[in-house]
Each structure stands twice: as C-alpha cells, then as structure tokens.
Batch of 2 targets.
Target 1
Amino acid sequence: MKKRIEPVKFDGEVKDALIFLEDSFRSPKEKVRLAKKKERQASRKGRRAFYDLDPEVIVDIQELAVANQTTASQVAGLALRMLLAAQRDGELDLAPYKVRIDHSPRYRYLLREN
C-alpha cells in the first residue's frame, strides 16, 4: 500500500518569502505577462457565469462560433439575450418545458425539451 503524501502547509511569512523567491527568478517579460494576465482576470470579475450544459449544446455553440469567426462566449451571450428578449416580449413561455421534481429542496422544476 502506497503512503499518502499530505500537502505542506506554510504560515503566512514563509508563504510570502517563497512567493518573493519565485518572483525573483522570473524574467521582466514574464513578470509583465503575468501582471497583464492578472489584470484581465480581475476585469472579468462579476462578468462570468458558469452553467451546466449538455455536451451537444456546447459543441453546437462552438461550431456556430467557428462558422461565424467569433467566440463561443459571444454566441452564447447573444443566444441568452435573444431568449430573455423573447420571454420578456411574450414570445416564449417556459411552462411547456417544465418537469416537476420532488427531490430538490430548492427547485420545483427542471426545464426539458419536448
């Protein structure tokens, strides 16, 4: 039986020293690249959402994006805006797609295609 190796936990000062040491080995170009990456991630904060989608839907969105030379995020965002507009304008009723569930304390329905 293999012995399980537990991750090492450092206190704050040791962790800071290790980060400083690691940064000292980075080239100036690498530091700029990482700073830009961190800035991009920070700018996305509050603008990202994660949804559980069927793999077929993901592939269809990706294929549509490639065919239109844009990103999957742009295609999905447009599709969601169109869905919300149709629902708001009374062109879409979700009632026919509702399936009652009893095993969730939080939700009463799943939405399924007929």
Target 2
Amino acid sequence: MALINVSSLDFSEIRESIKDQIRINPNFTDYDFEGSTLSFLIDILAYNTYISSFNANMLSNEVFIDSATVRENVVALARQIGYVPRPRKSAKAKITFSIDTNEFPQKPQTISLRKGTVASSSATFGNQSYVFSITEDVTVPVINNTAIFKGIDVYEGTYIQETFTVDLNNRNQRFILSNPGIDYTTLNVRVRDDIFTNVSLKYSRSDSLAFIDGSSAVYFIQEVEDERYELIFGDDIFGRKLANGNIIEVSYIISNGDEGNGINQFAFSGTLVDNDGVLVARDISNIFTVESSSGGMKIESIKSVKNYAPRIYAAQNRAVTSNDYESIVKLIYPEADSITSFGGEELDPPRFGRVYIAIKPTNGLYLSTGIKQNIRRELRKYSVAGIVPEILDVKLLYITFNSRVFYNTNFSSSPNDIKTKVLDVLNEFSKSQEINSYGSRFKFSKFLSLIDNSDSSIVSNETQIEMKRLLQPILNKLVEYEICYGNRFLISNKDGFNIRSSGFKVAGISETVYMTDIPNSNGITGSISLFTYQNSKINFVRSNVGIVHYEKGEIRLSAINIVSTVITSSIPIIEISAVPVSSDVYGINELFLQLDVNKSSVEMIDENLSSSLPKISRDIVI
C-alpha cells in the first residue's frame, strides 16, 4: 500500500500521493483523475493536508528557541531557563533649574518637585514631542530665597501608577502591568497591609534566588504577551508572601526607547509644592541642560534573546570561562552595544589569571572610569578566586577603500547621481550590525556586490581596501608603542612602503617625517624607518625605529620622542595604514571594525573608457 507523505509542504506532491493511494483500488485503475469530478475532491483533500502539514511544521518550530520566530514563544522558552529579556530603556538627561522666592508672600523653607512629569522637549523631534519624568519626589532647601534643583536625573517617558488588591481566593490572580513599553528598571513597588493604612513597605526586584530568604521583601519579574510584564511575589521560602487584602502600588515609566536620545532643550512642566503643601507656579527659571538625553534603548530583540538566554543559563550565575564573563557583563551593563572577552592566555606573551573584556556602549565609543569600576565591582559577585577581570577600551580598526565604479551611459546620464546612490548604500552598510560589532567580519565579496547593485547602470567595479589604526602619541616623552591589526599585512613591494603613515615630528629632526617598512628577506618581519618627503623626493632620516611582523599584523615602535603631529583635532593623531593579505578583514579580540566611508574614494568611470585606465595605486604618504 502506498503511503501518503503527510509532512510534505508541496501541494503537487501531496496531490499525487492521494491519487496514487486511490489507484490501489481496482475500481479506479484506469480512472481519468484530471477530467473527473473526483479531481475537485482530491484538490480539497490535498489543500487540507497541505495546511495541516504547514501548521504542524510551524508549531514544531515554535517549540525550540533556535527555530522559534514569535516573540512570545521565544520569551516563554527563555523564561524556562531563567532569562528575562532586557526592557525598553528610557533615555536619561540631567537638568538644573531654580525658583526665586523673593516675591513670595510666605517664605517657604523647602520646595519639593513631585514625582511624575517634570519637563518636555521644547522642540519637536521627528514630529513628536517627548516628556521626561521622575519616579520619586525631590526636595531641596530654600537658601537665600532661592531653591536650586541641581543636576536632577529625568527619564524620558510617561509616569504611570497602578494598584492591585491581593485576593488569595482567586487562584488564577496574576499581577500583569497594563502597558507595553515599560522600562522595568524604573519600577517602584510598595505594599500596604490593607486599604485602611497608609504605611507601605518597599519591595525590591530580585534577579535570582541567591541571598534572599522568606523575610526578604522582593519581587520577581517576567515578560509575558504583548511585551508586557508580570510581577511575581514570594512564598515565605524565597521572598515574603503576600497576605489577603494587601494593596500593591506600582509606578513606572513607559518609554519610547532610543527615540528619546539626543534631546537637549527642555521646557518645565512639573509640579512644585512648598513645605506647607502650597502649589508653586511662579518665578521658575528656564531649564539648563547639564547632560543631553542618552542611553535610551529598544527592547531586547528576538535575535539577542536567542543568543544570550542559553549562554546565561550555561554560566549558571558564575564567571569561569571568557564566554561566561561576556554573558554576565550584558546583564550588569545592558547599555552595552557589543561585548567581547578573551583569556590572558591568548595574548603574546600570555598573561595567565586574567580575563579581558572589551565593551562598546550603545552611545559613544568609550566607558567612563566610574562605569568600569562598577562593572568590575559587580563581576566580583560572579567571578571565581584567582581570576582578575580587566575592562578594555574600544580599539577601532578602520577599513578604507578606493573604488572605480564602471557604469553604462545608456542607462544613466548623471555619474554624480550614481555616485550618490553608491555612497548612500555604503554608508548604510557601515552602520549595520553586520560590521559594527566585536568579532565581526568585513566580507569583501558582499561589499563588491553592494556597489554593483546600487544602481542598474553599474556594470562592475574595481576596489582596493586598506586597514588603518589611529595612534595617539604621548608628546615630548620617550615612549614605546605597539599597534595591532589582527590581520596579516600584504608585502606588495619588497623594497618597502607597504606600511604608510601620516606626518609627524620627532625630537632631533626639524622636518616632518613619515613612517614606512623595509621587509626582511624572510618575508615575515621587517624594520620601521622614518623618511622625509619634499619636492617629490624621499630621504630616509632614521632607520630601525621599530619592527613590523607581517604574519601577526603588528607594528612595534622602539622608544621614540614624538613632539607633534600633522593631524590634530582635540588630540594628536598619527594614521598608520596597511593592506591586508586577505580582502576579508576580521575584528579579533578587542578590535572593533569601522568602515570609514568619509576617508575613502569612489570614482565613476564610463565603461567605454575602462581599457585605457592605469591600475589603482597607493600614494606614498597620506
């Protein structure tokens, strides 16, 4: 007997399987299925089987975290291993304003800023105005007839309050917050005994069962459907149990996430009262912005949940391997945009007993000293004895390119329009997560296809890439430097000039000098020399000032006294460039890839003129 393939997702295959099954019956041996009414019934059976197979396939996918696509299912699977996705994060700003009480009929001793809305953006951003709130009252004294609210932290979003009454007779009672888009780090949970008392006990959010007992006033949180959150309270074993009739008061901020970043103009819209409870609505100064709003983030994506949930579970709240540190740092510092970690044993020379963690924040490139100290302090709760975590700054590895883009004039009359499209596509690619993350890879073939597909008139392109690091020298001091690229250097010229730099001056030489390499006969290492370049003439002025290791992609400069640099913005900079052996560039360890479109070149060329052009060449100096 023929078996019907009920798991097939191809309608034709299912239909043929049903027909084969019917043909087994002698009454239908020579039956014309295509021209009969029975064909209509077979189609109905085939469609029904097809839909059932599709639903079964989708349902089976949603059972596993790797294949699930619906957010509620991914979150539910992550919940089973104790992972709570990061919430939408409110942008934070710091503001200052004052109240002049000279003209007040009654001189107050203190003035309080009530929790809730404090300010709104005084200009619209993307046709939308944003409000900023606080979750606790702020009270300041009146000194010399002036009350100064200095450096107040305000959070983007709407302040909301909710109340629940505990009913132990309702076994299905759940404490689900009504609104999506909540930044649960702003949650303030207090519990009163009943409706007749105003005394409340503050509950704190707990992320684990460690260090809590039956008397701990804690609550747990989990994401449920529609990006909302549910509060879970203890059972007198882990956390204090709620009693019948308890009143739960919850306040929080509903955030717009990263949309609230970058706001620096505010108008006051809060509520002020004096120590007698009298409303203060006059003589309020303009708001001075101490820090623009930043730190706003979208809710954790499905991709991120799939990535971190199993790793956090594997870490089991302890940091032993470098992957454990990477996962736990994401919990400690959710504002991290990208994280990488590696053991000291991977370095040359190795540094045993240390783990190095490189963090790129969502806003900006570098972490403040205070944030680094806080991360190290929190890591002590998880790390085992004998392992010392070190927080590294971002080390940018720039990729620049020189492209000749050939186009067909029959399909476009304006090369500038084509060039604009190419640059727009490459700028968008430079901002993508594919390249802007630790451990990323610049894929040369994909880069070429992006250029080719930018416009239908483009027929081909010739592109060369370079790697570039920025050296920040310490001026007027003898200092040794090591510049690592993490990718092998190409030796295209055995006479040198495979490494090039921008200009700088060193002690003892009055002219501007440049850096280059002289390869050794082994093709593995070489020496670094300094030369001047005037009137199109090269003059070597100092040799053996360092070594270059082509296989490792490293440059080491011996003690050198740099007194100034040609490139200066806020700090002195020396740009050092090299061509990689492989056109695919990797960001290893703490190296963070950046596609520098602004320092690259795109040349538009009529394809009919391509045969007469010379090859792309590198200049001797930048």
